[in-house]
Amino acid sequence: MSASQPKVGFVSLGCPKALVDSERILTQLRVEGYDIVPSYDDADVVVVNTCGFIDSAVAESLDAIGEALAENGKVIVTGCLGKRPEQILQAHPDVLSISGPQDYASVMSAVHAALPPKHDPFVDLVPDYGLKLTPKHYAYLKISEGCNHRCSFCIIPSMRGDLVSRPVDEVLREAEKLARGGVKELLVVSQDTSAYGVDLRYAAREWRGKSYQTRMKGLCEGLSELGLWTRLHYVYPYPHVDDIIPLMAEGKLLPYLDIPFQHASPRILKLMKRPGAVEKTLERVQRWRAICPELTIRSTFIVGFPGETEEDFEQLLAFIDQAELDRVGAFAYSPVDGAAANALPDPVPEEVKQERLARFMALQAEISAEKLERKVGTVQRCLVDAIDGELAIARSMADAPEIDGLVQIQDGEAAGLRAGDFCDVRIMGSDEHDLFGLVGDDEE
């Protein structure tokens, strides 16, 4: 053990929701006087927050645990893979502790057992918004845990349980603290943002002297009062999503929706246990764009799901061609241990999955390139993420961090831009994913 403050190394894997869990654990560690260090050599113990959703994520998590054990020797495991402790122990029997997602108390108990705290309240200061793993200018805002859906390819409910929403006033107070700490963009995350508050019967709570319902629209109305970029992720295309599009048209929310459609064949959607009214979905997308022409829609899809025929796949291609989605991710189906879809008949051969994935991504690349080309000559409001030599690497309102495209500002350094700055960029060129431009009007 270190002679000074006890030191904890931390490895965070998985989705933004897991990243928020990591931030909460790190905040509690700092509150209790632990130093957070970036290397195995400096750490007295290492915490690994794992992912366990798909096979590749499980493999990555097990590799990370193994590396931490080899480099440090004292490892505490938490996160989604922690719901399958036997799998972890089979590979790594020497870990100190295993706990599941959101089990902050078990993590802290394991840290206390391995490394008792040495806390000095007069020295150890933590910002009131907690510790963050993202850059200072943006943050993930988790509004709920768990999910009430039972999609056949997904095991999240078995890992994180049914939907548990945070009361709206609690979420708004956290957002307010983040804004005071310098955050300029909030990324709202959950398993199902559209279902937010249903478990609380949309109970009204007060914030800043005004009543807001614990539901998606009420949350968005409250967040719009902060004057930040607010970006919505994991939104199911329920009818009440219509209610927030006017807020986007009025500039109160970013005109951006992340909607995991997953497929477009009604038959496959039924096998997935997903909403299957594809024509209504297309009509809804068109109606949203009529209200808010600036709207960006990103989505994810699975190709090669068990039973997917060529006809089903052609329906998917026709959907993305008609919908002209702005940002799309896709992956070939792979069995997830414990998922109901594993029992479905007619698995698609691996070479067919990969061939369909390539065709899908080639079509989407054409759509994306065409849509981005339409922005050449326009001025886009952007948020700078980093300075790289002469370039400023930024994102427009249409781009979420890590998953979407970038705006490369060619004269960013000359214009004196810094990470966290807003600026207007005149778009001079584009490719399949990114935009290129020069600083336009005055920066904020």
Proportion of residues in extended strands: 15-25%
Strand order of the largest sheet: 2-1-3-4-5
Structural class: alpha/beta
Largest sheet: 5 strands, parallel
Low-confidence stretches: none
* Tally of DSSP helical segments: 12
Distance between the termini: 48 Å
Question: Fraction of residues in helices?
Answer: 25-40%
From the spread of the alpha carbons, the general shape counts as: globular
Radius of gyration: 23 Å
Arithmetic mean pLDDT:
91
Number of strands: 20
Account of the 3D structure:
This protein is of the alpha/beta class and 444 residues long. Helices cover 32% and strands 22% of the residues. The protein has twelve helices and 20 strands. It has a five-stranded parallel β-sheet with strand order 2-1-3-4-5, sandwiched between helices. Strands 16-17-18-20-19 form a five-stranded mixed β-barrel. The chain has a three-stranded parallel β-sheet with strand order 6-9-12. α11 runs parallel beside α12. The radius of gyration is 23 Å and the shape is globular.
Structural descriptors:
five-stranded parallel beta sheet, 32% helix, globular, 444 residues, 12 helices, alpha/beta
Indicate the topology:
Layout lengths: L6 E6 L3 H16 L3 E3 L7 E6 L4 H17 L3 E5 L5 H7 L5 E2 L5 H11 L23 E5 L1 E2 L10 H5 L3 E2 L2 H13 L4 E5 L14 E4 L2 E4 L2 H9 L4 E4 L12 H5 L6 E3 L7 H7 L5 H14 L4 E8 L6 H14 L3 E6 L17 H24 L5 E10 L2 E6 L10 E3 L12 E9 L4 E5 L5
Parallel strand pairs: 1-2, 1-3, 3-4, 4-5, 6-9, 9-12, 13-14, 14-15, 18-20
Antiparallel strand pairs: 7-8, 10-11, 16-17, 16-19, 17-18, 19-20
Helix pairs in contact: 6-7, 11-12
